[in-house]
Design a protein that fits this description.
With about 350 residues, this protein is of the alpha+beta class. It contains 9 helices and 18 strands. Strand 5, helix 3 and strand 6 form a beta-alpha-beta unit.
Amino acid sequence: MTQEYIGVILPDGIFDRLSAGKNQINVRAYQAAADHFGLTPVFMKLSCLKPGVDQVQGFIKKSKDYVLETVDIPKVIYTRSFLTKKQSRFLEGKKVQFYNKRGIGQNKLRMHEIMSEDPEIAPSLPETVPGTLENLLMMLKKHRQLILKPAKGSLGGGIMKLTKDKKGRIKLRYPIARRKWKEVQFKEDIPTFLTDIFNKKQYIIQENINLATYKKRPFDLRVVVQRNQTGDWVVPGILCKVSPSRNQFVTNISQGGSSLSFDEVVKGHSYLSHNRIHQDISNLSLKMARHLEKHTDHIADIAFDIALDKKGRAYFIECNFRGRYGNIRYKGKRLEEWKAKHFNPIGYGRFLLDRQE
């Protein structure tokens, strides 16, 4: 029987630890999925793919160990890193199907514009405009709380919050270092450093969503949507990112937030319906994934950030096309969700290979 390979391009850090002989739980999860679907995974990093070279070096499991071998480029590749244009053109020329491509650039304003095109998704979007002084003044007239953040960026870097009280006084919280914040107040004159920021870097101004809380700490949701072995979009898991304190509006783990299970957070609420919210969030996320298909090239793995207000209404905040699933040893239902996030992409590779045949 001919051996069927599937390429898995790992982030450099995971590949390098595999090279050093260190046990990698993520690799084991992909390996288990490949074994289930009758595939042999070839674990490589981005630099292993050299345009013009028809073979690639990667780690293949031999008995209990992973051995570096040279094989023909697999017909299907699941990438956890973004390929260069030269690599992409080369693989396309070889008729290699590689999925989880770059998708849409990491521009939050562009993403909201695309989402607003779908009338079923538009009601779930907080009002979002480009970061200019004029837009800031306009948004302050319409909303008591605003979020300002870089149009490009992640991990909560550069995010600020404006709050206006009934007397028109405005409080601004902004970062001065990682996990360190400063607060200033003003009334009419916008601080010059805000206009300087708008001039130097593209920002967005967004209506703030009054987030639901867990133990008085705000939380939002990370929803993973992937294609599986049938080629369909599915939601393998939803987790909650909980702010480090009741006064902190950023939930990012890099800013001190906590990652908790959806069941643990939502089932503890007397005013939130667990089943309804789970269904609403899943339906919204699947709609958004199918909508993004029209604007991207063979995406198969998306992580959506969803805000949930105190009434249980879901709002799209942002997304990325290369979700981080970590190597944490979960238990129970959360472990099954974590496994599914590794299982689905390999199953989709099986689906693509079968279609080729």
